[in-house]
Amino acid sequence: MTGSRPRPCLIMITDIVIVRHPVTACVPVNHKVTLSVRAEGSGILNYQWFTDNEEVCGGTQEDLIIKAQKTQLYVCRVNDSFCNCVFSEWVKVKVLDIDKSGLPVQWQGEPHIAVNPKPQTVQQGAKLTLRCIAFGNPAPHYQWYRNGQPLQDKTSDTLQIDRATAEHRGSYLCSVSNVLKERWTEPVDVDIVQKDQLPCAAPTATDKVALLIGNLNYSNHPGLMAPIMDVHQLANLLRQLDFRVVSLLDLTREEMLAAIDKFIQLLDRGVYGLFYYAGHGYERSGRNYLVAVDAPQPYRPENCVCVQRVMLSMQKRQTALSVILLDTCRKWYNQHCIPSVIMPLGPSGNTVYGYATCEDAEAYEVQDGGKSTGIFTKYLNKHILQSEKVTHVLEKVSEDLGRDPLVTGKQAMEIKHTLKEPRSLADPIRTTGHTRELHLRDACWRRANDLPGKKRLMFLCGVEVEVSFSALFSNVLVAFATVKTSGPRTQDCSITLSSIPVNINFYLRAIRHPVKFYCHPYISP
Fold first, then answer.
1. Using CA atoms, how far apart are residues 322 and 349, in angstroms rounded to an integer?
2. Residues 323-354: pLDDT tens digits?
3. Are 246 and 212 in contact (CB under 8 A)?
4. 281, 328 contact by CB (below 8 A)
5. CA–CA separation, 356 vs 333, rounded Å?
6. 46-51 and 188-193 strand pairing
7. How far is residue 315's CA from residue 296's CA, in Å, rounded to a whole number?
8. 49 within 8 A of 74, measured Cβ to Cβ
């Protein structure tokens, strides 16, 4: 019996099969994300990624690497030379432009909670809303719990109950997980109360912005010593209270007006605005004037800046709190001049003036432990971090100043206000309903506060120098130079900054104020 040997059977894959689809991700803005697809088929497979029905330029590989800037949908088409074609599942790359300060530098995609739920006291019948927002790649899954029990169908980043009742009272937390890890929020308490039990809401700010100006080196008037230290210390304290702080030294009148205009643009409804000035000043016809460093001798109102105009501009922006603090003299000057016309606004309230001294009196600076300080600002810095009503803080400053024997009978602080709510400089910031304005301020703030990056300079003699920069004030840039490599024939090195860098994106660049530079050499052994 004869026959032929059986031949091995070859199985041909005629269809394309996607064996791994890309996954949805939730990441901070500008984070690098890799979307991956894996497919099997006959011959060579070709890939093309799409977003919003448009081809992604250069997206022709299995892996698509993107720098996520906005939330978008993505899909990948896989085809072969036999005209077979298949699409992956659509995936969303959700981009959140929120605080990412706690995100690990080497983040691998495990859930990272960026926004935790907050305790709530809700009136019965009102809406209850709790939010938990987390980054994750893959995008995290949410599960809400009340009193340790999972809540059915509560699996999104926002838990919402349209009409809260007594049964919704309890302790809430949220589990956030993906294939890499599981995270838990801290438990928060939710209390459901009757209408007459609801406590008054604590005051909050939608943002806090402060402009600090210190004038000390005058062209035609005696110089001062205290403003440089007073502005620096007050700026650091206000940052602890979550203020965005612009601190400036030695401004001409044109520069003062431009800086104030930029400051006013950063204010908006619900914002706390604070303006501080240390330098020469005077009072005329009930109005206060700040003397610019280029003011002539004698000066007139048109050479100075009117404080009441600053307050009027702040009120026009519908701020929740407007504070002006003046460490300057109020001696009467040029009383024969006709005061400029300032039309007051209606009684909007929540304005506070803190004067270092009373009418027709001087404000003093003193030597305190080897440094000069305005005596008003000395006590202001002592109390400003307290979470009390702002007028109560200023009253404590006034009491301390009144007990100081150096100025007894010479200087007495004055406080004027129209405060109608118990607002404090330490009030928390709550941006709900104001996110658009906040994002605009954030963008403006980032552009205004960019510092030059580190630079490495190599010289022909073999010496390598690293130059870095720091902002001591918003218009004072400190350059640090460090010798990294001295070279084989170099015995001694000295570093001198001989020219000012160009294209510094700094706060006052937009108002054409020259940035002051200081060079600090550090020589490495």
1. 9
2. 999 999 988 876 555 555 555 555 567 899 99
3. yes
4. yes
5. 17
6. unpaired
7. 31
8. yes
pLDDT at residue 176 is higher than 80: yes
More confident residue, 457 or 36: 36
Other residues' Cβ atoms within 10 Å of the Cβ of residue 58: 9
Distance CA 111, CA 57 (A): 30
Unique residue bearing structure tokens 């960019």: 450
What is the C-alpha separation between 424 and 295, in angstroms, rounded?
35
Is residue 76 part of the annotated active site? The answer reads no
Model pTM above 0.70:
no
Average pLDDT over residues 249-268: 92
The tokens for 309 are 């105009």
Active-site annotation holder among 31, 112, 280, 513: 280
Which of 76, 329, 434, 513 is catalytic? The answer is 329
Contacts of 298 (CB under 8 A, 6+ apart): 334
Q: What are phi and psi of 211, to 5 degrees?
A: -115, 120
Q: What is the pLDDT of residues 455-506, one digit of tens each?
A: 888 887 788 888 887 777 777 777 778 888 877 777 777 777 665 544 333 3
The alpha carbon torsion through 289, 290, 296, 302 (nearest 10 deg) reads -50
**Hey, which residues does 249 pair with through a beta bridge?**
214
Q: Is 280 a catalytic residue?
A: yes
**Per-position b or e across 88-99, b if 16+ CB within 10 A of its CB:** beebebbbbeee
- Residue among 304, 306, 302, 305 nearest 286 (CA): 306
Q: DSSP string spanning 196-228? A: GGPPPPPP-BSEEEEEEEE----SSS---SHHH
Copy the structure tokens of residue 456.
């490495």
Which string of b and e fits 106-129 if b means at least 16 CB within 10 Å?
eeebbbbbbeebeebebebebebe
pLDDT bracket for residue 48 (50, 70, 90): very high
